[in-house]
Amino acid sequence: MRVSKYCSVLLVAFLTIGFVACSNTVSSTDASDNGGLDAVPGYHPGKSYNGPTSSEKTPSGGSSSSATASSASEVSSSSSMIEVDFSESKIQVDERGFAVITEEYLVDVTASVASELEDLKAQLEDNAEPEGFDEVGQLALGVDDLQLDKYLYYCYTESEDWFQITKDKLLETKLPFLWGGAAYEARGNFTLDFAEVCISIYSKLE
After folding, report:
1. Is 130 exposed, middle or buried (0-12, 13-18, 19+ CB in 10 A)?
2. What average pLDDT score do residues 131-135 get?
3. Are the CB atoms for 117 and 198 separated by under 8 Å?
4. pLDDT for 81 beyond 90
5. Which residues pair with 157 in a beta bridge?
6. Does residue 109 sit in helix, strand or coil?
7. Alpha carbon of 150 to those of 113, 154, 168, 187: distances in Å?
8. pTM of whole model > 0.70?
């Protein structure tokens, strides 16, 4: 009788242990199936995730190689501007690449030329469209904007005076990116700014 009772107690104990073990297995499996924290690869409680580093990211809309090429191009463009030697230039260039042209580097015109220009300007303002004469429309010009082999350029001032813009006079500035200068190939990075003297610039066909 005692042996039978002892065996019954052992059987109940084994059944209880087996039930607990099965419950733990099912609980673990459910957590994985439901996307629980144990199912997240590499998850470590208390450790933050910042995403890829800047060196690992690829810019939107392009590959990392094209982004690198673009950056190299920008550096190259900036470098060409920095490497230009302005030590002999009589005009300084600002960080935008603008060289301010002063009256000293413009040519006075004769009274007869000034009179002719006044007449042409008046016709233009009356919408007469004088042949070969027009307003340029801007005061900051690149070297390639000045077609000095085809047009004569005139600066009109606030005091109603006229000056001519000539190649020879501009070369007196010794700006290295002008025609035949040491930095002529880099001329696209620079601009001649006439706004200190002129309120309008006009071109006249030769």
Report:
1. middle
2. 95
3. no
4. no
5. 198
6. coil
7. 18, 13, 15, 20
8. no
CA torsion, ordered 156, 101, 131, 112, to nearest 10 deg: 50
Rounded to whole angstroms, the Cα distance separating 154 from 111 reads 14
188 Cβ contact list (under 8 Å, min separation 6): 142, 144
Question: What DSSP element (H or E) covers 201?
Answer: strand 198-205
Amino acid sitting at position 44: H
CA-closest candidate to residue 138, choices 155, 115, 162: 155
* pLDDT, position 8: 55
Handedness of CA 169, 173, 177, 183 (dihedral sign): positive
Helix or strand or coil: residue 136? coil
Residue 59 and residue 82: Cα distance in Å, rounded?
A: 28
Give the mean model confidence (pLDDT) for residues 139-159. 97
- Say if residues 205 and 132 touch (Cβ distance below 8 Å): yes
Of 181, 179, 146, which is closest to residue 164 (Cα–Cα)? Answer: 146
Given a cut of 60, whether residue 53 has pLDDT beyond it is: no
- Rounded mean pLDDT, 132-161: 97
Those residues whose C-beta lies under 8 Å from the C-beta of residue 161, and which sit 6 or more positions away, are 114
Query: Is the confidence at residue 133, as pLDDT, over 60?
Result: yes
Is there a contact between 162 and 113 (Cβ–Cβ < 8 Å)? yes
Q: What is the mean pLDDT of residues 98-116?
A: 97
Q: What's the token pair of residue 191?
A: 């601009």
SS3 153: strand
Q: Does 34 score more than 80 pLDDT?
A: no
